[in-house]
Amino acid sequence: MSSLFPALTGAPADRPALRFGDRSLTYGELGAACGALAARIGGAGRVAVWATPELETAVAVVAALQAGVAAVPLNPKSGEKELGHIMSDSAPSAVLAAPGDELPAPLGDLERIDVDVRAAGPHPDPQVSDEDPALVVYTSGTTGPPKGAVIPRRAITTTLDALADAWQWTADDTLVHGLPLFHVHGLVLGILGPLRRGGSVRHLGRFGTRGVARELNDGATMVFGVPTMYHRIAEALPEEPELAKALGRARLLVSGSAALPVHDHERITAATGQRVVERYGMTETLMNTSVRADGEARAGTVGVPLPGVELRLVEEDGTPITSYDGETVGEIQVRGANLFTEYLNRPDATAAAFTPDGWFRTGDMAVRDPDGYVRIVGRKATDLIKSGGYKIGAGEIENALLEHPGVREAAVTGEPDADLGERIVAWVVPEDPQSPPATEELADHVARRLAPHKRPRVVHHLSALPRNDMGKIMKRALRHD
Questions:
Q1: Above 50 in pLDDT, residue 470?
Q2: Nearest residue to 258 via CA among 474, 449, 136, 414
Q3: CA 161 distance to own-chain centroid
Q4: Residue 74: helix, strand or coil by DSSP?
Q5: Which listed site, 52, 164, 207, 352, has its alpha carbon 20 to 30 Å from 250?
Q6: Handedness of CA 248, 250, 254, 255 (dihedral sign)
Q7: In the 3-class helix/strand/coil scheme, how is 138-202 assigned residue by residue?
Q8: How far apart are CA 386 and CA 391, in angstroms?
């Protein structure tokens, strides 16, 4: 098959490719570094990547893909229990990391390969196919530990080429973002996307409005972010006129991973003259829809299906909705080359995720306008929380809370939050009602076991959880008056 990154050999060697802070690589340097690393890992089944927001992570993932080896990005903030599960499930042969990075105990038995971004080696030429795994990305389900979504090479090329069509994305574009590099948004769209186009990416390390303004003033053309970032931009605009001017220079502002509130859309447009484009995707599907650069940026929608993506809405019984009126709610199902192939080691979950004729059940509920625009209205289940751009399963937080000695029962929900989109709320029945565990104690307990962004922001203490006749917790009854 053709290369995922033709620019590594076809672009001018001195063209800027990656910049992280004051460290950067040209296409010539990136190709050489990836060649050297690919030679070391060629033939491995899978390699883990300690996915810090650094140059080494980008080199590690690109080198793995160039070598025809599947990469398993790891969240450096994950707790040891979560990492232990991912390690045993994915069984990588080595872990790639930046020199000097301290790795936690669950990675201790793995061969460690330090990524040298200044090394040089020949361009690899592995025998790979479109269906070969490119990434295994772990995603939180509504119950149990994260599942490893196996993303084939053709899904990456399909999604990135479809986005190039929708966003008129070319080698002349320079992208700026501060997204984490262990999930699809920051890694596939935010790093692999520019490199496939032959363009450039500048990673902020940590998101900040001043960094965005600086890079846009220095020639960046596109910004990717999650709603929390755009909310902070909207909040800062009245006090930062230079930020408004810089955003006004951008060719494209893209928000994803959760819905951007209409109020933030309106504030940003009023201050900058720019409209934020939204798109919709999942770990398992990569990108499904987007507002097009040459289309109407309709606030509150995620646009139309991307080229090559089939999308339908279905009733609760699976009957397809055939007439779109902008009001009828159905579950989104998608089909196309952008889809993952399986959940690693979970044939049961894989089978349950697809209809018999190959449509993926997203679990997202939406309405669709007569002209094809899609507006997502919520989850089919109540157990997936979208907070700060992350999709978080309530079940694994509940399991972590139940490991605390002071917790007898626990339920987790999400509630609206102006900054995060949703904040995580825990409803706890304490072992000792006279001495319930404090919010901070429980938040730290969850953060240590899972990841900081999965900690509850609010804890309510109850004498009992509301349950139905079958003993199932009735989460819709969990409301704080």
A1: no
A2: 414
A3: 18
A4: strand
A5: 52
A6: negative
A7: EECCCCCCCEEEEEEHHHHHHHHHHHHHHHCCCCCCEEEECCCCCCHHHHHHHHHHHHHHCCEEE
A8: 5
pLDDT at residue 468 tops 70: no
pLDDT digits (tens, 9 = 90+) for 67-77: 999 999 999 99
Nearest residue to 271 via CA among 257, 255, 253, 259: 253
pLDDT recorded at residue 400: 86
DSSP 318: S
Distance of CA 462 to the CA centre of its chain: 34
Secondary structure class of 419 (helix, strand, coil): coil
222 by DSSP, 3-state: which?
strand
CB 64 within 8 A of CB 45: no
Q: Which residue has the tokens 């080494």?
A: 56
Largest CA distance in the chain: 69
Per-residue model confidence as pLDDT tens digits over 165-195: 999 999 999 999 999 999 999 999 999 999 9
The secondary structure element, H or E, covering residue 425 is strand 421-430
- The secondary structure of residue 253, as a DSSP letter, is E
Stretch 207-220: mean pLDDT: 97
Domains and CATH numbers, the chain: 7-368 (3.40.50.12780), 384-477 (3.30.300.30)
For position 381, what pLDDT does the model report?
65
Structure tokens at 135: 């990434």
How do strand 252-255 and strand 276-282 relate by DSSP bridges?
parallel
C-alpha dihedral (471, 473, 479, 481), degrees to nearest 10: 40
Strand 309-314 relative to strand 330-336, pairing: antiparallel
Q: Rounded to two decimals, what is the model's pTM?
A: 0.84
Task: Report the alpha-carbon distance of residue 4 to residue 157 in Å, rounded.
Answer: 7
Averaged over 227-254, what is the pLDDT? 94
Q: Say what the alpha-carbon torsion angle 236, 241, 243, 246 is, to the nearest 10 degrees.
A: 160
Q: Which two tokens stand for residue 413?
A: 């929900």
Spatial CA neighbour of 117 closest among 66, 58, 56: 56
